[in-house]
Amino acid sequence: MENFQKYKVLLTENNNFRKLFAARLITLGGDWLLTVPLLGIIYELTENPFITSLVLVVQSAPLFMLGSFGGYLADRFDRKKIIAISEFLSGLTVLLILYAVTTESVVFILFSFGLLSVAGSPYMPTSDAALPNVVKKENLAEANVIFFSSWGVMAGLGAGLGGYLTTVISRNMLFAIDSLSFVLSALIVFSINKNLSEKSENKKEEDISYKEGLKYAASKKEIFSLIITKATFSISASGLLSLFTVLSYDIYKTGDFGTGLMFAARGIGALIGPIAIRYFFGSSDGKLLNTIGITIMAWGLFYFFIPFSMSLYLTVLLLILGHSGGGSQWAFSTYGLQVLTPDRLRGRIAGIDYSLYFLMNTISTLMIGYLATVYGVLFVFKLFPVLGFIFGFVWYLSTRNIWKSLDKS
User: Fold this and answer.
1) For residues 82 and 26, what is the distance between their CA atoms, to the nearest angstrom?
2) What are 212-222's pLDDT values in tens digits?
3) Can you name the CATH fold of 2-190+210-408?
4) Phi-psi bin for 405: left (phi > 0), alpha (psi -120 to 50), beta?
5) Do 292 and 229 meet the contact criterion of CB atoms below 8 Å apart?
């Protein structure tokens, strides 16, 4: 019950955390509100799984190239201003996407969606780096569960709502609402009345080098292990997401509704997984971080059964269970980086983490999209969960002594 009391304190008594959390909900919801309709639009225009997968490629590729730079900005400048400006620019970019959709030009649509990732590239590393500065250390694990479960909530709600609303209102209206949501998020962040960096007033006087973050990550085995977690797991997982649309349109015959429901299931799993893992295995940081490999294996196990399911709703259940594991590895690998990295380096480490993740995300989406075009969507849903399970097993065996020593120190 102590864990649940901490959740209550964060959500009812910490005003700055609530604002940072609310802004994140709006931002992530806005991203997913766009993604499902865009996947449907591109598939309708091309009927090609590989080209459809490019929606997620252009979403991730700019974040690979600019994520580390965004982390550098988080350590160099006022984190509050960086987040707010990024959100405002994202709102403007959504209007460009709206116009691109009216042209029915696949290239223009993909280009404009890529610009949204460029505008938002500083957001995630800066937001991650800021979180420990608005909560106490003893509440940081619970704050991460809430913070990264927000991804699950909004991936579920945003994707599900996006899929549903396309059947109720026009896509143009949906995009206009999404643009306003980013502006609202920027205003909420500006209203936070606390510095989001330690000694932020002295940051311009510090010698902040991008290479310092790389050297720190390479010299600390625990940091290095956590940084490669999202990236390596992403090779198996990320490319399968764009194929939700193909499953929905070609296997289940449910269109945007089915796509939204599958993304919603992904989000629900990412919400409940971290809460459960924190409750049952959160007695120490070492024990918590030791679950990461196990949760990756759980993702692989449940995903493996998806190609054998001929029911949308059975697939939804498997996705919830699978992403309970996937969401947990994301939340607690990030938590580990936060508690093990000093504030002055936290932005750069988060930026490196996201850059590697989005690099592997891009490669995975291109590779799996191509293989699905050649061998079929069901083939890749059989192969890559097995690879993910193997990675989780190897990561667990190779890092468990690190986390045991962490509890002893």
Assistant:
1) 17
2) 888 888 888 99
3) Growth Hormone; Chain: A; (1.20.1250)
4) alpha
5) yes
Residue with tokens 């996947």: 39
- With cut-offs at 50, 70 and 90, classify the pLDDT of residue 158: low
Q: Is the distance from CB of 75 to CB of 129 less than 8 angstroms? A: yes
Question: Rounded distance, CA 113 to CA 110, Å?
Answer: 5
Joined together, the tokens standing for residue 262 give 């599958």
Ramachandran category for residue 104: left, alpha or beta (phi over 0 → left; psi -120 to 50 → alpha): left
- Give the DSSP letter of residue 169: S
The per-type count for the chain, helices as H runs and strands as E runs, is 17, 0
Residue 283 is classified by DSSP as S
Task: Name the percent of the chain in helix, strand, coil, to the closest 5.
Answer: 90, 0, 10
Alpha helical stretches, state H, 242-254 = 244-246
| The predicted structure's pLDDT at residue 152 | 61
Q: Which are the contacts of 51, defined by CB distance < 8 A and separation ≥ 6?
A: 42, 106
Tokens 């250390």 belong to residue: 137
Which of 36, 61, 111, 73 lies closest to 364 in space, CA to CA?
61
Pair of tokens at residue 60: 């991730």
Mean pLDDT of 114-136: 87
pLDDT of residue 201: 47
Domain segments of the chain: what residues? 2-190+210-408
For helices 343-375 and 123-130, what crossing angle results, to 10°?
140
List the end-to-end C-alpha distance of the chain, in Å, as a whole number.
27
- What secondary structure letter does DSSP report for 286? H
Give residue-wise pLDDT tens across range 201-252: 444 445 567 678 888 888 889 999 999 998 889 889 888 987 888 888 888 8
Tokens of 261: 């429901």
Phi and psi dihedrals of 252, rounded to 5?
-95, -15
